[in-house]
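Re: Re: ligand-bound prediction request (bumping)

Still looking for help on this. To restate: I need the protein modeled with CA2 bound, output as structure tokens. Inputs repeated here so nobody has to scroll up.
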Amino acid sequence: MTCSILILNGPNLNLLGTRQPEVYGPTTLADIEALCQTKAAALGVDVTFAQSNHEGELIDMLHAARGTHAGIILNAGAYTHTSVALMDAISSIMVPVVELHLSNIHAREVFRQTSYIAPVAVGQICGFGAAGYPLAIDAILSYIGEAK
Ligand code: CA2
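Reply:
Sorry for the wait, this slipped through. Here it is.
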């Protein structure tokens, strides 16, 4: 069966490429999805790409990943720094999660240096801009043993 990966993006990431390019780069979320689909096709895996500005919807999508996706790449946006609910959802689903950020959250404001996702993720990639997404696909596939 083809390995399926969920790439989940949180609040405000739908605005990528339209504002603050000095922080998040010029690439739009649609460009990033295209990058991920190209990478996935080259590796022979399926990628489902999604974005929501709503915490509960992100939690619903994490729950729905059980039995559907072999791994998850999560850029939880600002919920990274606030959401015990997302942390609990990840703990409960038994699907490995790679935490991803465009920016290097450790080199930014102090409040961004705390992640509620990190303790329940298998690892974190941050600071590489849009290029972090294909890196995260390699990372999650390596973790689940599907590395090509
Ligand atoms: O670096 C990342 O990927 C972040 O997850 C992005 C979040 C931020 O709150 C995290 O601390 C780090 C913010 C995404 C907001 O994206 C925008 C894009 C264009 C214009 C405004 C916001």
